[in-house]
Design brief:
The chain is an all-alpha fold and 130 residues long. The protein has one domain. The protein has six helices and no strands. It has helices spanning 21-31, 35-43, 46-51, 63-90, 98-103, 118-129. Helix 1 (21-31) packs antiparallel against helix 4 (63-90). Its main location: cytoplasm. Residues 6-128 form the NUCB1-like N-terminal domain. Keywords: Cytoplasm, Golgi apparatus, Membrane, Phosphoprotein, Repeat, Secreted, Signal. This is NUCB2 protein.
């Protein structure tokens, strides 16, 4: 028997298998709290999303949303730093290429670890759709 979902009911999405799945979900959840951005997201087609056009809408979200996104990014950067440190500790003195290691984390701009900018959203979208 098929049951329709109730309006406003939170639908659980399956795990994407991405190592940054939790970060991705949190960013989406925060962005959807902004009415303007949610409307743009719902009306955008896949090409607008992939091209970065949707990322430019980030400049129009509320200050509260931007502050929360900044906080999420700082948490993700801290998580990635812990992963990098653990990786470096596990392969001490093996000539690890630190730049190659950082390239694994292309879902955010690690050169700006403090604020979530349109470039971060664009990089996250490109990483997910690659």
């Amino acid at each position: 028997k098929a049951e329709g979902h109730v309006e406003g009911e939170k639908v659980e999405n399956p795990d994407t298998g991405l190592y940054y799945d939790e970060y991705l979900r949190q960013v989406i959840d925060v962005l959807e709290t902004d009415k303007h951005f949610r409307e743009k997201l719902q009306t955008a087609d896949i090409e607008e999303i992939k091209s970065g056009k949707l990322s430019r809408e980030l400049d129009l979200v509320s200050h509260h949303v931007r502050t929360r996104l900044d906080e999420l990014k700082r948490q993700e950067v801290a998580r990635l730093r812990m992963l990098i440190k653990a990786k470096m500790d596990s392969v001490q003195d093996t000539g690890i290429d630190h730049q190659a290691l950082l390239k694994q984390f292309e879902h955010l701009n690690h050169q700006n670890p403090d604020t979530f900018e349109p470039k971060d959203l664009d990089m996250l979208i490109k990483a997910v759709s690659a």
